[in-house]
């Protein structure tokens, strides 16, 4: 019998396991992952950015977790020798019409307690010489890291504390037995006193397995990237973002220097026709039908039809994708870009068409379900893990050595 079982071996599941080990050092902890390696999906395919929290509504979980997580992630990497860099980023207005939105974003950064500087177009060029802009914001605390390496360290720390990690183990059924639950998998059954669902793209389905209403449906959005050819990497020194459209839930295509020195450009955001659909040709009839019959999706699509069409065009037209990037760096040409890996974002969507814009954590009987953990979940993972553990009722049969304020 395990004291805690976590479904999902991405960065949120592993950070939760690490936080449980810190709070309940004598507990029997199990982490189950259906893939053959940790951080295989959202975590392993993200941009590797340590986000500052500038975009998020003041007072929201996103804002607090990101601001605090930015600091704790850097400290964690320093402590464990994980390659990272606090390189900062610029958010730039490419024409005068974007300046009011840039100013609002700057004020939001100040409200969120982030170290930000309002800079002119000339000052932007001092940081990023090839960017064309009429002004910008310099966000000093933003950084870059390889989150797969972070996850491997999380897993190592869990194992060192006595936690049990199982790959290639897919949960297929959850059976409640009163004060404990049985997780039936392709690799046997496991009994646990408390269940934590961190299943990412499948978190809503796992919640339903556990007889819990997830309050929303996961709709997968694929983000497609190009990479600058090695001889054109000099065009980007760090991170370059456009001013986001506050009416659209995605940040727009941008340039990201990765910790290995490569430079990625993107992503766009298009509906994926499969929950783990990383290629345009990936298709799953059940996943597709589920989205197409969901009223919330059509309400969302109607609201963002114009932007949605632009994203689809960018998906199929390299020329259109290039033009979007040229707004930031005019020198970029189509031949400078080569396709690279895509990622799929698990976005929770309500029946009324509203995106769940913050973390969504739902309680069940002897269970907690993380049903929306969008970006900046990787940045915030240490703080999210602590917050999830705090949501768990005290376990009288276990002694603690640490509690979280």
Largest sheet: 8 strands, mixed
User: Rg from C-alpha positions?
Assistant: 21 Å
CATH superfamily assignment of the domain at 2-43 and 148-215 and 358-391? FAD/NAD(P)-binding domain
The outline comes out as globular
Output mean pLDDT: 94
**CATH class label of the domain at 2-43 and 148-215 and 358-391:** Alpha Beta
CATH topology of the domain at 2-43 and 148-215 and 358-391: FAD/NAD(P)-binding domain
The count of DSSP E runs of length 2 or more, i.e. the number of strands, is 22
* Structural category: alpha+beta
Distance between the termini: 29 Å
- pLDDT < 50 stretches: none
Proportion in β-strands: 15-25%
CATH architecture of the domain at 2-43 and 148-215 and 358-391: 3-Layer(bba) Sandwich
The helix content is 25-40%
Number of helices: 11
Brief summary:
The chain is of the alpha+beta class. It contains eleven helices and 22 strands.
Give a description of the structure.
- This protein has 405 residues and is of the alpha+beta class.
- Among the domains are: 2-43 and 148-215 and 358-391, 3-Layer(bba) Sandwich (FAD/NAD(P)-binding domain); 219-349, D-Amino Acid Oxidase, Chain A, domain 2 (2-Layer Sandwich).
- The chain contains eleven helices and 22 strands.
- The protein has helices at residues 11-23, 61-80, 99-111, 121-127, 147-160, 203-209, 285-292, 295-303, 305-316, 318-326, 381-391, and strands at residues 2-7, 29-32, 49-50, 84-85, 89-93, 116-119, 135-139, 143-145, 164-166, 171-176, 181-185, 188-197, 217-223, 226-228, 239-242, 254-257, 263-266, 270-271, 337-339, 343-349, 360-364, 367-372.
- α1 crosses α11, α2 packs across α11 (381-391) and α9 (305-316) crosses α10.
- It is globular.
- It starts with a strand and ends in a 14-residue tail after the last helix.
- The model has no long low-confidence stretch (mean pLDDT 94).
